[in-house]
Please model this.
Amino acid sequence: MKPFNDNDFLLMNDYGKRLYHEIAASLPVIDPHNHIDAGALATNKKFENIYQLWVHHDPYKHRAMRIYGIPEDLVTGSGPDYEKFVAWATCLPATVGNPLFHWSCMELKTLFGITDILTPQNAQQVWDTANNLLQQDKFSALGIVKGFGVEMLCTSDDLNDSLEHHIQLAKQQPGVTCLPSLRADSILAFDQPSFKGWLQQLQAQSTIDVVDLQTYTDAIVNRLNFFHQAGCLLSDHSLDSGFTYTTCDSNSAARLFQRLLSNEPLTTDEMVRLQSYLLYFLGNEYAKRKWKMQLHIGAYRYTSSVLRSKVGPAGGYACIGNTVDVQSLTHLLDDLDKDGGLPKTILYTLNPADNDVFASLTGSYSEGGVQAKIQFGPAWWYNDHHEGILRQLNALSSFGLLSTAIGMTTDSRSLVSFIRHQYYRRILCSLLGSWVEEGRLPDDWILLSTMVKNISYNNIKSWIKND
Model:
């Protein structure tokens, strides 16, 4: 029987073990998309207890606890931290088969040296052990990130964010590069009740009065320049289930935006046209700055009105949406491409039925001298489990070039989520090793070790930083 969570965890063959331990394990981590709080890093926050570090900011865990029937007061509510930690300890054994079980066991072992499975019976012991360790300097926010080997992480930040913590970190040079990336959804959120208030903030931040579409785009450009000066290299759009795109000329968009400012209702088709125009505009602006564009496609977020009212729009209750509208996606990319404004782009799908589609799209748009201009991003959200990662790797290798892949991303609010890079690398190395042992790949150490280095680290570093 193979031991659980030992040094060879998920490494199912000798060749994969060698690839991981000799090559992948020691490589630095570059994470192009997460929701880490830059303020925690800028202040080098120390956590009061393991709940605050490990459970409080993790919607993955919250979702599992709700499925298990734990009351919301002990998930995200006002219950005492220890009681909420025990609630998570009660739920964790029930997550067998879910990636949370693997991640949680790996996190406890890597961070605290705890190899026992967390249960209600040992919750007090784990609580005490972890909380004592959290008093040490190496368990500060920066210490934890450095402990996971993180070289660079890119957070998700609204256009109106001050970026004060990123600027502070750049001055401090703490040994970890923390860059902002633009979460641009608010720019297109014309149909949301929060848009008017957000627009007022944009005017204040940019010192530009928005009276028409031209002044709106002027204000956006003002903030894009601010982000660029703060080191931003990437943007991010959530194109949820039902995303559609159509070409819209500037005159039509200007008329639609004027009606919006006048509080005139727009039809669904008119809203799509206006959003499409701004999405096209933004893509071109990203390309001008050599930013990379990330498109997260396929979430359906309007499930539980009750949970939305309790925990906000990103509380872990969204589900997988419909498959992508390929015509709309390619229409967007093609409009940008034929006008010379297509930036390097990462396509993430939440619906695994789109894996082959997205992998095939990596060969649909290209640029001389640019390797993998369109990336099929790593298994994301509901796909970042063992089988989901394997499916993404197999799809990319079948329809694109696995050797040009850019590794893993956490897409998480939790500092301990960087363990997912190790998780991904173990699965990658085991897959390549199995192909060698089955005779599907040659026993060529230079070829495969170089491939692992590139996928785990070199590709994302050069892809982000190079024009």
